[in-house]
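S.,

As promised, the zinc ion run. Input:
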Amino acid sequence: MQVALDDYVWAAGIATDLVNTAPEVWHGEEHLPDLASPATFAKLHSLAEPTQATDLRAVHRLRTTVRDLIDHPDREHLITGASALTSPAAHVTLLADSSRWAVSLRSGATVTDALSLICGVGILGVVQALGAERFRACGAPTCRGAFIDTTRPGRRRYCMPGLCGNRVNVANHRARLKRRDL
Ligand SMILES: [Zn+2]
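Predicted complex:
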């Protein structure tokens, strides 16, 4: 597998999706609960690397590491941490059509290695192109999710906009109705 070095939007999106599978984001419900979960998550993101029995714990560990980076968005901390995540990389190369820089995954790598490299490239790309202030906690009061904002204006507020954004809208709507009834 190769990860285009300028494709930080895709890579940071996978990092955000990964951290938001954690039980703390779902009121205790683990969204990567069993051995099949890392493979399912990888397939969802079109990654073809094989899964090993140790991948579940390794992916959970990776998720904790990435979450810690998003929660402590100090520039140096992000760069050091994300660089470490790229250790499954083999070499820097060009994509097949030689239009873009890319980094390839070392041979024999697993799903965890692929995800680690992707998260590393995504975080470094966002720090470089958009800045450390793009790493944030979800703005919904009841949500413990976090995200990396890769939108152009940088005004994203929720970890899962369809879910948390809607919840906030519904709560605001109810509050308005209640005020009107008083
Ligand atoms: Zn949220």
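Strands lie at 2-4, 89-94, 101-105, 135-137, 146-148. The first helix runs from residue 8 to 19.

- D.
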